[in-house]
Fold this protein.
Amino acid sequence: MNDIINVTAGLIFRKGLLLISQRPIGKHLGGMWEFPGGKQQANETLPECLCRELREELGVEVKVHELLWECFHEYPQRKVRLHFYRCSLIDEGIEPKPIECAAVQWVASNELVRYEFPPPDHEVVENLSGGCFRRFFNLQPE
């Protein structure tokens, strides 16, 4: 398989915390934590993909902002290009729910290292833990 799969991930910041979700046990990389999102479908832009995935996985509507990080990773069975976008919840009163994931958690940037993330997320976790993107943890709702 030589095709590259485009995957989106949302960096959702709220009140100084970042939302992460846990992959379902029994699925690829099950039990690991990640930034919620998913695979792009045909005829779908990356922001449309991210909105759809977050609606399906967490039951929330988001506004997709700027692309913060992009990386490529090659697993033995697939190649993926990950696109990490800053997002904000459209309705702050609706709490994300684990619909298609095992759990969700709001965490501070210095807590990210306590969670096991898939290899493609490691650079983003390191940057977030090291203070990159610090300004987004303190943004007011838009």
Remarks:
- The beta strands are 4-14, 17-22, 33-34, 37-39, 62-74, 79-89, 103-107.
- Helices lie at 46-58, 122-129, 134-137.
- The chain has a mean pLDDT of 89.
- The chain has one domain: 4-132.
